[in-house]
Amino acid sequence: AQKVTQAQTEISVVEKEDVTLDCVYETRDTTYYLFWYKQPPSGELVFLIRRNSFDEQNEISGRYSWNFQKSTSSFNFTITASQVVDSAVYFCALSERYSGGGADGLTFGKGTHLIIQP
Amino acid sequence: SQTIHQWPATLVQPVGSPLSLECTVEGTSNPNLYWYRQAAGRGLQLLFYSVGIGQISSEVPQNLSASRPQDRQFILSSKKLLLSDSGFYLCAWSRRGGETQYFGPGTRLLVL
Predict the structure, then answer these.
(1) B96 lies within 8 A of chain A by CB
(2) Is A25 exposed, middle or buried (0-12, 13-18, 19+ CB in 10 A)?
(3) Omega before B61 within 30 of 0, i.e. cis
(4) Across residues A46-50, what is the average pLDDT?
(5) pLDDT of residue B109
C-alpha cells in the first residue's frame, strides 16, 4: 500500500527565512508520481509540481525548489526568502502507476501548516 | 483553459437530511473526475472516481454515493446525512491519460 508522511505538522518562520517542508513516501511500484499542492485559507488546492519516479532531477521555480531522492524516498520542498503570502497548508501526494484511460486517486500526506510571520 | 466549479460553496444540513453536491468542468472533454473529503485537521481522502459517464468507482464504503450523468458533471449524494459526513468536499479532474489532478474550490458541509 502507498503512504505519504509529512512529519512536520506546523512550521513557523519569520519572513525572508528559508524553510524546507519534508515529505517521505512509501510505494511498491517502480513507476509513480509525486506532487505538491498548496492550500491557502480559501481552501482550494493549488497544484505546484509533479515529478515522475524516473526523473530525479531537482527543480527550481522562482523561490520554490524541490529535492527528489529515490534512495531515501523523499520529495522535499524548499521555499527561499519566504513571504507572508506563502502562508498556507502544503500537501505532498503520491500516485502509483497510471495506465492510459484508467484513473488513480492521489494519496495525500496530512499536510504541513506553514506560517510566515512578518 | 479549463475551469472546475463546485456548488454550493457552503452548506449546513440537519442529520438525516439528503445531500447533493455538484461539480462541473469546462474546457475539456472525457476528463477523469474525483471526489475527495477533507475532515477537520486531517488530510484528503479519495471517495469516488469516474473515468466516464455512468462509471463510478468507490474507494471507501459509506453512506455517500456518486453519479456522473454527463461527461463533465459529477454529483455527490446521500440519502441521509450523518454527523461524521461533515467536512470539506473537493472535486478534481484530470485529463484522460494524465496524472495531474486539478481541484475545484470545494464545498464546506456542516451536519448538525
Answers:
(1) yes
(2) buried
(3) no
(4) 95
(5) 96
The verdict on B10 touching A (C-beta cutoff 8 Å) is no
The 8-class DSSP code of residue A40 comes to -
Residues 6+ apart with CB under 8 A from B107: B6, B7, B8, B9, B10, B11, B21, B88, B89
pLDDT of residue A1: 75
Q: How far B107 CA lies from chain A's nearest CA (Å)? A: 9
Q: Length of chain B in residues, anyone?
A: 112
DSSP per-residue letters across chain B: --EEEEE-SEEEE-TT--EEEEEEEES-SS-EEEEEEE-TTS-EEEEEEEEETTEEEESS-SSEEEEEEETTEEEEEESS--GGG-EEEEEEEE-TT----EE---EEEEE-
Question: For A47, which of B34, B50, B100 is closest by C-beta distance?
Answer: B100
Q: Band of the pLDDT at A99, cuts 50, 70, 90?
A: very low
Q: Summarize pLDDT for B38-89 with one digit per residue, the tens.
A: 987 678 999 999 999 999 988 776 789 999 999 999 999 999 999 999 999 9
